[in-house]
Design goal:
The chain is mostly helical. It contains 6 helices and 2 strands, in the order ααααββαα. Strands 1-2 form a two-stranded antiparallel ribbon. The longest helix has 17 residues, at 89-105.
Length: 116
Amino acid sequence: MTEHRLFAMPFAAVYPAYVNKAERKGRTRAEVDQVICWLTGYDAAGLQARIDDRSDIRSFFAGAPALHPNRALITGVVCGVRVETVQDPLMQQIRQLDKLVDELAKGKAMEKVLRA
């Protein structure tokens, strides 16, 4: 089985899409960063460093300081895919982040997005 081409894409290439999606719905870049940091364990400086060094998505998630233990609570459908049934661990992490940004953009309260 071949690897998904998304894995080699620079995180810096998808990050603006996350921010644009949220900002179009009245949310902020800071809120997108908060969601990403919650999921991955990066702090603001670490997130910015990964964006600046153009790490691919595989490296971005592999280098995550601490994936949040509550990430298993991220369920539902995003882009036609049920997040909790994705078999590949990296693809599941990508879909979890997609789902969090989607919920943020849909106006969900931050404490609900972050499963608090």
